[in-house]
Design brief:
Structural class: mainly alpha
Shape: globular
Radius of gyration: 22 Å
Oligomer: single chain
Helix content: over 70%
Largest sheet: 3 strands, mixed
Number of strands: 3
Distance between the termini: 17 Å
Number of helices: 20
Amino acid sequence: MLNNSPILTILLFLPLLGSAVMLLLRNRDHWCRMLGLAVSGLELGLTGWLCAMAPIDPAGNSFRPGFFIYQDLPWIEQFGIRYTLGLDGISMLLVLLTAFIIFIAVLVSRQPVAKHLAFYYALILLIETGIMGVFLSLDLFLFYLFWEVMLIPIFFLISLWGRGRPVYSALKFFIFTLAGSLLMLLAIIALYLIHGDQTGRYTFALVELLHTALEPAAAAWLFGAFLLAFAIKIPIFPVHIWLPDTYADAPVAGSLILAALLAKTGAYGLIRFAYPLFPSALPLFTPLLLALAVAGIIYASWIAYSQGDLKRVVAYSSFGHMGFIVLGIAAWTPLSLSGSVLQMVNHGITTGCLFVLVGMLEERMQSTDVDAFGGIWGRAPYFSVFFLLVSLASLGLPGLNNFVGELLILIGVYRVSPWMATLAFSGVVPILVYTLRMVQKVLFEQGGRAEEMRDISLREGFTLSLFAIIIVFLGVYPAPLLDLIRVPVQLLVGGMP
């Protein structure tokens, strides 16, 4: 338990330092790859060490209940802005997921990247700093700063290295996200002014803003602004229309980061900021969020079934599974919220791995058309085994990682709204249908160009093995993760950060 330890600052700005150094290595492709792997690997090792050292029960911390690392320093004091970072069990899991996914993004970015390699890796590391900042910030000004920092490098990553219509897709993502973010900024400023008028102390500190007294109408408007910004990033039905084009046109690393990490920043924003700050608005918005989450699950499942592009199938699959996470958050019970946090990690692993697998197919076949891949099982058996395993994990097969999280969510939601839980469970059926259809057409159905397919390399096998180990381990033994988030979840549902 560390108070004002610089370890969080190191965790936050190590990728930024690596990004700056990367720009000095122009035209030195080998060194760019080595530096990218070194920085992302060091970041992963550091987060793994922090996770291993994390206490299971940090509730009694004198400096901040629930957090085992907390750093609070003055920054722009005249405006009530402080440099406040904190790490509890929830943010710990997401920080660890971020470090792992960025390491994988660097690892898989070899053959598909042919130009401006230094700038490419610098953008990935800059994205890592932005995402880490979102998960660590406990000052709303600092949080918003990193929330916007994420947007710029992912825009350039998609527009410069994407396929199809990358500039169009990147602009669509940028405009949607920016519009929601500006409304959230107005809500943050309004909350800042209301709190200052009430207490005489103007501050962006989350711990102080939690005690702001709000009229029901004001709380509803402010919660709505936060919700829209987070809903676009998750995304929640019906503000998801940027998703299929952006996910499909992004490069492999871009799709991986969008699905596995950026979607989680929106869900984390609901958990850490929107729900604790505006509890009086929850009775009004909870039925709406439950309904939209269920609608998204069912809608995404049926649309995924009709897609002919494998990247779009995975994109809609990601959208549908995020609906379960939103469902658990909306119910706001310890069981459903625990399931949602666990599922954020599980979704990042399974969907991220699916995008990596699709990227390998695209690299070999120069296509993501589902009909182009028939009969791969006999041509590339090792690839096929990994594809089958991850697909089964995605549909929630017992013994693999997605099953536990979705089960906890459905049980928790059932206690709040049996009808919504039942409808959400009915969405599992089309998920089963489109996933098995995808497996059939890619691995077993004859008539494709399987003769052009080569099996995975040692580097690719190592990458996929990392995913497979996590998928099986979390499916069989998720207890360490649930233990880590138990106290933070209880504090959140009880009204504390």
